[in-house]
Amino acid sequence: MPEATASVSRPAPGTPITFRWRKWDGGVHWVHECVYLGRDEYGDWVGQQAGWRSVRPGRDVVAEVPNVTLVPPSADFACTVNEAGHRVRIYIDLGWDVRWSGPLEITGIDMDLDVVKALDGRGLWIDDRDEWDEHRVHYGYPDDVQRHLEALAEDLERRVAASEPPFDDATADAWLARLADLAR
Question: Which of 6, 34, 125, 174 is most deeply packed, by most CB within 10 A?
Fold first, then answer.
């Protein structure tokens, strides 16, 4: 299992940072404009204001509502929580080596599987299993990585369903409030 880089000093809350995902082979994936919010017992939190961009090859998305993302020290996922008004409340990207790579940048390898909690009637599910099945062969994901992430996806789905912190509304809403305070 990957481990987060503990030795990188964190920027001051309110500092703009970049969150950069890549694929297993090093290929470019999502790049998010973010701001550092701070740290708690669950890990580091970053945020995006409404109107900030997330881009990847062939796609440019503007955040519809503010959102916050938890980057835990386990370095194997990033959990984004959207403010009310978005059709998805929680979107967890399973990853590998998700960590600070410098004073103003978090990087990680997107590992395809996602845990999604939608508010539009679709419920809670593990997404992109087809992409996972294709990419684990295409990229040659090691067996131990596959086993770890498959078990993690199921565990995260269970924890989100149970609203266990930090996957409860209160934890994310406190960080969304901090993001709103920065905008004022």
Answer: 34
DSSP 131: H
State the CATH architecture for 16-176.
Beta Barrel (2.40)
Q: Which two tokens stand for residue 12?
A: 């001051």
Cis geometry, peptide bond prior to residue 166 (ω within 30 degrees of 0): yes
Q: What is the pTM of this model?
A: 0.95
* pLDDT tens-digit map of 1-33: 665 555 689 999 999 999 999 999 999 999 999
SS3 141: coil
For residue 18, what are its two tokens?
A: 């970049």
Residue-wise DSSP of 8-75: SPPPPTT-EEEEEEE-TTS-EEEEEEEEEEEEETTEEEEEE-TT-EEEETTEEEE-SS-EEEEE-TT-
